[in-house]
Amino acid sequence: MANTVEDMKAIISKKGGLAKTNRFNVIFTPPSASLLNLDPQAIIGSLIGGRFNVKNLINDPRDISLLCESAQLPGRQITTHDYMAHKQSVKIPYTFINEDVSLTFLLTNDYSMKVLFDDWMGSIIDQNYRLSYKKEFTTDVIIQQLDHDDVPVYGVKLENAFPTSLQAIELNNTSDNSVQKVTVQLSYDNWVPEGPLSSTGSAIRAVIDAII
């Protein structure tokens, strides 16, 4: 425990300052089924509304990152069972459980993020209840904590992530200045921590995958 305020300031300064909750980055390349925005109705609607831009035909990971309002670094729980040893019960670990991750995105007037996750979930199981192969609808998701210079200081990779829940979007006649948002819950096989260099490399690969 620091004895004085100056001691605390010295510790924080030595470690590069305090991490800020609003300095983060989320980046991933959607599976091929939701990577392209080729819905004819959406394209015609954007043409009529004067919003059409050919760049919007691809869900750019950089756009996804900027529109992400909130994210979570996942938690992990070690599960145990009780073992009786020398008349005393002790806990023995045997596996772990990863927590699902929720992401919230700002919605633009083309509803691009809502359409992305609609298409993504539709590629998992369609309206006729046909289930796709897992490799066809999963992707790695990188979540980074950034410092004040936007340099990653810590990151996690969600391996083989896919959406399992898409929350309802409220329409309210009394909310004149509210911004629409969509929240999605992701499940995944496992998460692995990444240092600054490996996390930066993962993010770059995600962008390159989208371009190629």
Give a quick precis of the structure.
The chain is an alpha+beta fold and 212 residues long. Helix content is 30%, strand content 33%. It has one domain (18-211): Pnp Oxidase, Chain A.
CATH superfamily: Hcp1-like
Integer average pLDDT: 85
Task: Give the oligomer, counting copies of the same chain as homo and different chains as hetero.
Answer: single chain
- As a percent range, the share of helical residues equals 25-40%
Residues in β-strands, percent: 25-35%
- Reported by name, the CATH topology is Pnp Oxidase, Chain A
CATH class: Mainly Beta
Based on CA inertia axes, which overall geometry fits?
A: globular
What is the alpha-carbon Rg in Å? 21 Å
Our measurement of the CA-to-CA distance between the termini, rounded to an integer number of angstroms, reads 52 Å
How many distinct folded domains? 1
| Total helical elements | 7
The SSE order reads: HEHHHEEEEHHEEEEH
- Low-pLDDT residue spans: none
Largest sheet: 7 strands, antiparallel
Query: What structural class do helix, strand and pairing data support?
Result: alpha+beta
Q: Number of DSSP strands?
A: 9
CATH architecture: Roll
